[in-house]
Each structure stands twice: as C-alpha cells, then as structure tokens.
C-alpha cells in the first residue's frame, strides 16, 4: 500500500497526500489500494538532465517532443504520413504482417509493422480475430482500462494569485507558478474519498487537481499577460451512475466543481477564465484512442505489469502475428513519456529484421 510506504517515511499529512497524487495519477485507485505504491515508483524512476526523479516542461508544448522525434527520424530517411488512419494490418498467407491498409484504400507494404496504438486497437480492431489465439484475445479484452482522468485546458487573462503565495505587483510569474501545483490533497483521506465517489459512478465532489501553468516558463504559448493553465483532474468515472451520458451539462457541471475548488485557493481565478476545453474519459478515448481514456493504455496495476503487459508470453514486444510488434504504453514498462517501450521494441524489431 502506498499509504503504508508514506507513513513509514513522512509525518506531514499534506506532504504525504501530495506525494500520493503521483501514485494514483491516471489510476482508478486510492492511496489505500494494494499495489498503488508501484505507480509512485514508476513516476520517480527516471531522470532528467542527470537529476533523478525530475520532470520537466517541453518547450513549445508536448507536441514539440513528437516533432523532435519526427525530425530525427526523417533526417535518417524515414517517411512520415500524418493524418492517415490505418484500417487494418495486411497479413500474408502464413498469417505474418506484410504492411498496413489505410482508410483511403492505400496499401503500404513492409516486412515489419510496429504499432504504438493501444493493445485493444492493435489486436481487437486492426487484426482479424480468427488470426489470433483465443486466450490472447480474451486477455486483451479483459485488460483493466478504467481511467479517472478529466483533462481541462484553460485560457486565462492573468496569472492565478494564491492565498498562500500572492502574486508580485508586476504580475510576473513566481517560482511556484513554474512548478506542478497540487490542490485538494491536504490528506490522503481526501484522495480516498474522491476515489470512492468515482467508484460509485459519481464525479468527485472535491477532485484531486494537478495544476500547471506552462506559459509561465514558455511565454510563447499565450499572448502577453495571458496564460494557459493545464488541469489534470480526477476522479471522474468513464461510465456515470445510472448510465447517464457525459453530455455537455455533465461536463460543464464537473468543470465548475473544479473551478470552484481552485477559486478557494486562488480567489479571482474564475473571473480570469476566457476559454476552456474539457476532456472527460470518453473524450480522451474518442480523440486520442486511449482505451477507457486511460493515459497508460491500461492500468499500471501489478497484474498488468512486467511479464503480464500486455499479456503473459507476449511482454517482449513480439505479438502472435509474426512481424507485428507493440511499442506503445500498453507494452512493458508502460506509459509516462519515457520512450522505453518504443526503444525496447525497436531493438527487438531490428534484431528480427536482420534474419529476414
């Protein structure tokens, strides 16, 4: 249990709860859920510019990271076709991958196919089911993809001024504006209560909020004096109680709850909002192909990690289809913007390619 680990090392309840947010982020779990300690480890195991466990902003927004990878690839001769939806994987007579078919009818032939789509899309939508072992299909169908995350992007006409650390008179960002700000986590019990509400199908009445202001470090993201605020919030169930839809009313009601909470910490925040974009779990699934809205393509629980990710006997990036590899967050070791799954999968694919 994460709560036991934190109790062992710390006394301060706000500190424990703030650290606990990194253990339940993206997970439909509470700090009291068995195995929750692993997700905290996952979030601090990496390093940034030699600093262990550090995280950073990407200049120009997260899309700039994808662009950097794309430029590195094209510099080495890769051809990239964006906005070209894949319809299915092309298979040979022996069931091996021979390329992909696009929705516009184009066929792209290749000896190997790497998919960083989720295991669900890769194996349940892009491959004929009769080509896969039944127990494998069953396992992929059973992967726990529940996600508690609703992402809210907000445009504001001034920096939030927090009661605990009021803004400077010149309105310039202070050190805390350039960090990750965690709200509604004064105690681990608050997080547990928020989880319990969502487990019963109701968006949390006092949600866990991780607030970032990337424009405080990267002014080009917003006009002068204005800012973009990124809110990573939970817990919101994918399916609302009673089968209610995540319609415009439900989305706005939850967003208002989040903004009311922020207003308590930073009076005037609601009046500063000039635009907002609300992405509930179904929105994250529809727009980004995240199963259940899960940012990791599947829960990072102990039964879905290491040799069992995405399925036992298939944790080494190869799949039941020869020549088809899984290289996204649904493969070992999971998500977290670290690129480990992609790098590992590439090495396996290159090794196999030499024998073709």
UniProtKB/TrEMBL annotation:
Among its keywords, does the record have Flavoprotein?
Answer: yes
**Where does the record place it?**
Mitochondrion matrix
User: Which ranges carry the Amine oxidase domain?
Assistant: 34-172
Q: Where is it mostly found?
A: mitochondrion
A Gene Ontology molecular function term of the record: oxidoreductase activity
Q: Which InterPro entries match?
A: Amino_oxidase, FAD/NAD-bd_sf
* Secretion signal span: none
Magnesium keyword on record:
no
Q: Which UniProt keywords apply?
A: FAD, Flavoprotein
Single GO cellular component annotation?
mitochondrial matrix
Q: What does this protein do?
A: Probable oxidoreductase that may play a role as regulator of mitochondrial function.
Q: Which family does it belong to?
A: Belongs to the carotenoid/retinoid oxidoreductase family.
Describe, as the record does, how this protein assembles with itself and its partners.
Answer: Interacts with COX5B; this interaction may contribute to localize PYROXD2 to the inner face of the inner mitochondrial membrane.
Name it. Answer: Pyridine nucleotide-disulfide oxidoreductase domain-containing protein 2
Organism, as annotated: Promerops cafer
> What is the primary gene name for this protein?
Pyroxd2
